[in-house]
Amino acid sequence: MRAQLARVPEWLEYFASLARVHEGRVTPFKGPVVNTLTRLPLGVVALITPYNHPLLIAMKKIGAALAAGNVVIVKASELAPLSVLRLGALFQEAGLPDGVLQIVSGYGYETGKYLCESPLLAKIDLTGGLATYKAIAPSASANLIPITAELGGKAPVCFFPSMDVEHAVKAALFASFIASGQTCVTGSRLLVHADIYDNFTALLKKRVEALRLGDPFDDQTQIGTVISKTAVERCSAFVERAVQEGGTILCGGNPTTNQAGKGFYFQPTIIETRPQTDLECNEVFGPVIALIKCQSEEDIIHVANGSSLALGASVWTNDFKQAHRVADKIEAGIVWINGHHLNDPSSPWGGFKQSGLGKENGLEAYESYTKLKSTVINYGVPPVWFDDEPANARYG
């Protein structure tokens, strides 16, 4: 939460600035005609936000929607609504008119469903799972309501021999275990070149086993809780299936508790597996990570592109040409080179394939909350169809 709070103002500042400088256009048009393009607010928009990074993800959407002039309804996750509810009160204190930003609570299958079925909406912006998208898409389609959807990922983290092994392991820990693996770009697939695989794996195992699991409010904690008992059970099920498919647990693999014997915890887990297994292809949304040995650059690219989810990916190499070559070939909406989880208000965020539709952040997000109006002004062409002489008029 501290990390979120430190960055939340950036999205407000960016979109406020964008609203100030964003301009319409005058497009080329044949003859003495001026064609102006202006962007107008959509109207009432619904934002469906998740439990992970609840405040930051809500702000990414709210900032763009308000800056574009819309009325905004936020349906916060029933698992983590409090920070978003507090945000509403702060907007009110800051002087936002009543009703411009409305925040509602409730279960997705009740409140969220009811909200998204309204024909009065002009747009739905969802961060959630594919199942949620499929639940709301039919009614949105029937009402001709556009949807921006960020639906999760299975981010490959690609390590090449030019990368120092110790640095690579630190990168893997950061990519894989931030927020206990509960981010849509969690580095949940570690694709490691064979030339460094053995050294990488030995050091990774040692470092993961040394991670401090505990209370998220404790500054010494490195791995906190998962969101619920259901999340623990989901992690356990992935581990069980991975072993059934021939995977080897290198570390972790079990539910656990903190020192007080409380909380929903799952051990940070690394499982050595192969491509196209359940663990390698599907999103866990927890600290259960697939480790795969790859024989070549081409092999890494092939495995990276083998999932139906394509939100984020990272490439770790000190070879500049290789970095761009691999990044160009990886199918993902975001590819980081020698970085992971990097996010900025100006940088479009969204995936390919089943990871979603549209973008958060940047000019793309701002314009997605507007509708484009074309005004065509004729200032010199006589309208021949008004000719009083029938012989001079043409209608087709």
From TrEMBL:
Chain ranges of the Aldehyde dehydrogenase domain: 2-374
Coiled-coil positions: none
Protein EC: 1.2.1.3
Catalytic site: 150
UniProt key word Zinc-finger: no
Molecular function via GO: aldehyde dehydrogenase (NAD+) activity
Catalytic reaction(s) noted: an aldehyde + NAD(+) + H2O = a carboxylate + NADH + 2 H(+)
Top enzyme category: oxidoreductase
Alphabetical UniProt keywords: Oxidoreductase
Superkingdom, natural source: Eukaryota
Family from the record: Belongs to the aldehyde dehydrogenase family.
Xref: PANTHER family: ALDEHYDE DEHYDROGENASE-RELATED
Protein name as it appears in the record: aldehyde dehydrogenase (NAD(+))
Organism: Aspergillus carbonarius (strain ITEM 5010)
